[in-house]
Amino acid sequence: MTQQADSLLVIPHFLEYLPSTEGIPIITAMPTGRTTLKSSRTSTTRKAMPPAVLVTGASGSIGRAICLAFAQAGWFVGVHYNLKKPEAEKTLRLVEKEGRSGGLFQADIRSRQSVEQMVAAYCRHDVVPRAFVCNAGATVGQLLVRHRETDWADVIETNLTGTFHCLQAMAPPLLAEGGGSIVVIGSHAGFHGQLGQAAYATSKAGLIGLVKTAAQEWGPQNVRVNLLLPGWQKTGLSKGAMPESGWHDHALRRSPSMEEVARTVVHLAQLQHLSGQVWNCDSRHL
């Protein structure tokens, strides 16, 4: 069954259970049976509170750098993790060292329920949700003919379906505040493929269509969704695949610094008139 897009946003069921207290979204039913979301915060309350961001995959290198960049810009930072709580705690300590506050939020993004519970817990904090960063991801290095179906399924479920779960849960809090930004971390491999990375490249290619669709559907409510390509970074995911030298496909013959990429994420999250776009952080051609 098809349905014409009408710029209305269906609110995930988990938000119906949030208490209608100060600083927490209120759910109201529309005559059509749809659900809408509005904020109980006064304008005075919102002005007194720092903007807030929730970063998934914040226990990893790129996620940690993004969290620090937001902290340095004066934001409250939600630090997401799945299994690596000690690493997430390290990220949070670094955020607090910058003089900003934050919180830890656990979720397996492959599970819709887990993501919904994470976002609900985040919304219960005394914060103003302004942005979300979908950074969590996974990869398995293997040539296509040797790729195990279980590895394929895990990468797709994490990188693509997991981001789908996050987008569905993250948009309503932004709608309640009159708009906001979601930055999804993609990959150059999603455009051109990568040797030994069939599942990863496929999952990142899928994010292009997902981001552009979300941007079109939520744009009328001022929820902006963009895809950012961080370029080659030294992380656990790139170990064994990252070039050691040469960079002949880069016009600048180098990869971007992680700090510059993180600052670009913060900049992109604050742009008011950009949505549905792909922002490439290195000097390769798409």
Would you kindly provide a written description of the structure presented here, covering whatever features stand out?
By secondary structure, the chain is an alpha/beta fold. The protein has one domain (41-234, 245-280): 3-Layer(aba) Sandwich (Rossmann fold), CATH 3.40.50.720. Helices cover 38% and strands 16% of the residues. The chain has eight helices and nine strands. The chain has helices at residues 43-48, 61-72, 85-97, 112-123, 149-176, 189-192, 198-218, 258-270; strands at residues 26-29, 35-38, 51-55, 76-81, 102-106, 128-134, 180-185, 223-229, 278-280. The protein has a seven-stranded parallel sheet, sandwiched between helices. It has a two-stranded antiparallel sheet with strand order 1-2. The longest helix has 28 residues, at 149-176. It is globular and about 55 Å long. Mean pLDDT is 82; it is low at 1-38.
Number of separate helices: 8
CATH class: Alpha Beta
SSE order in H/E notation?
Answer: EEHEHEHEHEHEHHEHE
Distance between the termini: 35 Å
What are the key terms here?
about 290 residues; Rossmann fold; two-stranded antiparallel ribbon; alpha/beta; 7-stranded parallel beta sheet; single chain
Secondary-structure map:
Elements: E1 26-29, E2 35-38, H1 43-48, E3 51-55, H2 61-72, E4 76-81, H3 85-97, E5 102-106, H4 112-123, E6 128-134, H5 149-176, E7 180-185, H6 189-192, H7 198-218, E8 223-229, H8 258-270, E9 278-280
Helix pairs in contact: 2-3, 2-8, 4-5, 5-7
